[in-house]
Amino acid sequence: MLKTMSESEVAVPHVPMTPAQAWRKLREGNVRFVAGQTDHPNQDALRRQFLIDKQHPFAVIFGCSDSRLAAEIIFDLGLGDVFVVRTAGHVIDPASLGSLEYAVDLLDVPLVVVLGHDSCGAVTAAIEAVESAQMPPGFIRDLVERITPSVITARRNGVMDVDGTVVEHVQQTTERLVDRSPIISKAVEEGRTAVIGVTYHLAEGKAEMVSGFGVL
After folding, report:
1. Does the domain at residues 17-213 carry the CATH identifier 3.40.1050.10?
2. What job does the chain carry out (predicted)?
3. pTM for the full model?
4. What is the distance between the alpha carbons of residues 14 and 121, in angstroms, rounded to a whole number?
5. N or C: which end of the chain has fewer CB within 10 A?
6. What is the pLDDT of residue 12?
């Protein structure tokens, strides 16, 4: 049943979360989703009105564009809870990196989540390109080129399957975010933000942390 917030509940002053508190809130929502006991919080008209002039998301989720990976649903969240950036295969490009830096630097988001999932089509395409030595057409090639280093690293470590390569790619992406962005790396060093990698299992709906930078 959809829960409606009262005006007093909507007007509660913003209290910043720590990275650990933000991850705990995501985990709790995912547990509800897996169990089929979702609360559907912050999805009513009062919440919508409350957010007209401000937003204080407690996490930024950099996820794959796959239609089965809707962050607000799998973590049982609502309006204003998370800042979401999505590209196929959570590939880093200037626009996505700038969006993540905006969330960390201007919105003071305490947690960056790189969200991958099993049976990822973009990772599968990169694996197929490596195996066939043939690149796909158009801008799909750009996606594959950016994922290929993760495929090569996975194979060097003896990982050949798609889902294992997804885990490697999530781990590689978290590391690249911290390495490539002075804004994000500074926030991590100062303890204001943590960057974690999470994989989502399509069948059971469970989100599992597989890597991280910063204090949780």
Report:
1. yes
2. Catalyzes the reversible hydration of carbon dioxide to form bicarbonate. Reversible hydration of carbon dioxide.
3. 0.92
4. 39
5. N
6. 56
